[in-house]
Amino acid sequence: MAFRSVSRLRHILRDANGPSSSWRGLGFTENRRSVTYMPRPGDGSPRAVTLIPGDGIGPLVTGAVQQVMEAMHAPVYFETYEVHGDMTTVPQEVIDSIRRNKVCLKGGLATPVGGGVSSLNVQLRKELDLYASLVNCFNLPGLPTRHENVDIVVVRENTEGEYSGLEHEVVPGVVESLKVMTKFCSERIAKYAFEYAYLNNRKKVTAVHKANIMKLADGLFLESCREVSTKYPGIKYNEIIVDNCCMQLVSKPEQFDVMVTPNLYGNLVANTAAGIAGGTGVMPGGNVGQDHAIFEQGASAGNVGNEKIVQQKKANPVALLLSSAMMLRHLQFPSFADRLETSVKRVIAEGKCMTKDLGGNSTTQEVVDEVIAKLD
C-alpha cells in the first residue's frame, strides 16, 4: 500500500499537464516560495533603535529614513536623542539607550578642529567597543563614474592607532602623539575582515599598511593579518603599502575586494574609494562590535554638509537610506532591507530625481517621495 502511494505521488508530479497543475492537484499554490529564512520566535517583533539626528544635514537625512521606514511599515521604532558635536561628552542617557537597544542610527556629528575638544564619534566607538568600521563603496547603475566594476568593502580598525587620542605637549611648542597598536585588536579586526569575506562570498582580502616605515606598529598589524589568513585558505590574501594603495585606488580600483586597515589609513582609503564610486552621499556604512552597532553615512567627508545645503534642504539621503538597509539586515529583517535597497537603486538608475552632488537639483524630500513611490 505504501509503495502504491509513493508511485501514485510520483505519477502526479510527472503529470503531462505540467508541474504547476500537479502541485495545484496536491493543494499547493503555484507561487509558493521555499523557506529561505527561518526566524526564531520573537525575531519578527518590532525593534527599538536609538536615533541621533546629529548636526548639519543630519536631521534632514535621518528624517528621510524615518519617512521611508514608516511608508514600508518596517518593524522598527526610534528613540530620538539630541546630540551635537560641540558637546564635551555623549550624554549618559544616550549611551544607556544604545546599550539597551543594541542598535543606533546616526546622522553626522561635527567634530571641532583643534581646541582640545574630543570627537563624540570616537567617544561612542570607544565606549561601546565598536571596533570594526565597514564602508561599502560600489558603482550604482545610472550614476556615471570614471571607473566601472567597483565593489570595495573597507574594514577599518576603529579604536586604536592614531585615533587613540594619547597626545600631550611635552614642552611649549613640542607635542607628542602616540600611535597605540595591540596584538588583540589587530587580530580581531583581521578576523572580522576574513569572516566578512567568507560569509559574503568575497574572494580576496588586502591588508593596507605602512610597515616599511612603522616596522613595529604596522608590523604587528601585518603579522596578525598573516596569521588569520592561514585559517581561511579559500580567500586570497595580499598586502599593499598605503601610499601605493591610494595610487592604485584612483587608477585601477576594480582590483580590490575587501580591504582591512588600521584606523587612520581606513578613514583615508574609505573616503577615496567613496569618491571613486560616486561620492560620499551614496556610500553606506556602519560601526560594529560584539554587542552593539551604529549605522551612519559610510564616508565621513561631508557627512554634515554645509549651511547652504541645509537651508535649501537639498541633502542627499541615499547614503543613510542604504545604511539603514544594512541596519535592517543586521536586525534580521532581510526582506525589508531588500525592498528599501531596490527602491533606492531604481531611483538612481532612473536618474530623474537626483540631488546636486549627483548632478541634479532635487530636494531631500523629492528624493524621499520618489523612493517611497518605487517601494514594491
Automatic annotation (TrEMBL):
Which GO molecular function entries does the Swiss-Prot or TrEMBL record give?
A: isocitrate dehydrogenase (NAD+) activity; metal ion binding
Among SUPFAM superfamilies, the record links this protein to: Isocitrate/Isopropylmalate dehydrogenase-like
Q: Where is the signal peptide?
A: none
* Pfam families per record: Iso_dh
Recorded GO cellular component terms are: mitochondrion
Source domain of life: Eukaryota
Q: Which InterPro entries does this chain map to?
A: Isocitrate_DH_NAD (IPR004434), IsoPropMal-DH-like_dom (IPR024084)
Entry keyword set: Magnesium, Manganese, Metal-binding, Mitochondrion, NAD, Oxidoreductase, Transit peptide, Tricarboxylic acid cycle
Q: Which GO BP terms apply? A: isocitrate metabolic process; tricarboxylic acid cycle
Is Magnesium given among the entry's keywords?
Answer: yes
* Locations listed in the record: Mitochondrion
Q: Which PANTHER family match?
A: DECARBOXYLATING DEHYDROGENASES-ISOCITRATE, ISOPROPYLMALATE, TARTRATE, ISOCITRATE DEHYDROGENASE [NAD] SUBUNIT BETA, MITOCHONDRIAL
Summarize the protein's role. Answer: Performs an essential role in the oxidative function of the citric acid cycle.
Family to which the UniProt record says this protein belongs: Belongs to the isocitrate and isopropylmalate dehydrogenases family.
Which named protein is this? Isopropylmalate dehydrogenase-like domain-containing protein
Species assigned in the record: Vanilla planifolia (Vanilla)
